[in-house]
Amino acid sequence: MEFTGRHWSELLRRALEDVEPYAAAALYPHAPAVHREWLSPRLFGARRDRLLLASAGFVAPAVLARLAGIAGADGMVGLRLARNPAAPAASLVALWRGADSGRLRLLLARHAQMPRAILAEIAEGAGQVEILRALCENAGAAPDVLAALERRQLPALQRLLAINLATGADTLLALWTAAGEAAVRAQVLLHPHCPAPLLRAMPGSVLERRCLAQQARVPVALLRQLAGDGDASVRQAAAAHAAMPAQALLTLCFDPDGGVRRALAGRADLSARMAGWLLEDQDAWVRRTVARNAACPPGLLALAAGDAQAEVRRAAARHPACPAALLARLAADPASWVQAGVAYRDDLAPPLLRRLARSTDVDVLAGVARNPATSPARLARLAAHESPDVRRAVILNRMAPRDVLLPLRQDGYALHRAMVLEHPNLTDLDRWRMRGDPDAQVRFRIFGHFARQAGMRAAARSGARTRATQQALLTTMETI
């Protein structure tokens, strides 16, 4: 389908008549100036629509910027824009300049898109603790602004400053010196910019030691000590640390706390020796974690495949290198949940996939429906299944052919219709025929798809004209 001016005109007409403003919002960023003026009354004329758009994080910044410019004295529109993570920086600045409520100022001070210069201005002039706390929570604040906030010596700000990833090492050191709470010091130890001198001594509280055990730069000598800590939560954090020495890991395999052993079971560098021990662990979650871990040698999976717990057997079926013989065994498991774990694999032999396709269990059939090797005829039957989970799995199958997908454009679930229009095997003509979908969000996606195409074509034409003009100018100059 070649998108033409006639198609664009129909989109404009439909957007202006639509009961919701979202279709017009999809067209607005890609529309020429004259068409933007046509769309503006539909978008911004009614307060209900302004409120809907101000809360919508999926609409383009151009819509939100225009909305901020005309919001005027409507405080509720301003509040919704200030909560919207997609609100553009210029709109936030305009709202801040005209803000007359404490709640609006609080939201703007916390907004991640607020420019650093404005955050510095807010920090300099703010006296309310609530505003200062919002600034401390803002990851977009510059380190020097956070340092200035620390110099106010307000206990209510200390932990928030220690959490903020933008806080610099000097500020963290000042917080460590001034803090009277273990919670603040623990956050300083956990921070990626934690000053090196603070990582050389064992802290006193459990909370601090647990955070130290999660610090990527903790010295190995301290890490060994943390592996033997008297608190299980500290040992669990240490067991997951990438730099933990191998000998300490072997000892932790027999830790009395199941959480510690679970942390070990999920390590990417799990050795075959440790995997063998942990597959015989009394904790089913430990065995399950090992069986799913790609580091577990395939030769050990037979033990997991015979486990009394179905979750462990399913984990073995999901192991990326599970042997074919074990997969055939697990495909006949008495628990459908285990069979489903096999069905979701992309490397199944065709006979095994056909056997699983004869199941009546929804989870198994969903795995079959998502499998790229499932035949088109089978997918067509699954696309008509009564379970939405099975139909959704067909849509997620990147190999599903067009004729299987076409009926799903009328699926009873709006989510499915929104998903199917993104499928690469549909044509633009198929998507165009969905332009009258009853759901506003689906229409927004469809209108947005074609509006982007119109915008790219307009940009290409403009670029071609510019290049032609430049070439003509060069020719003239050469003639002269």
UniProtKB/TrEMBL annotation:
Q: Transmembrane as a keyword?
A: yes
| Entries under Gene3D superfamilies matching the protein | Leucine-rich Repeat Variant (1.25.10.10)
Q: Name one Pfam family in it.
A: LRV
Which residue ranges run through the membrane? 51-73
Any idea which UniProt keywords this protein has? Membrane, Transmembrane, Transmembrane helix
Tell me the protein's name. Leucine rich repeat variant
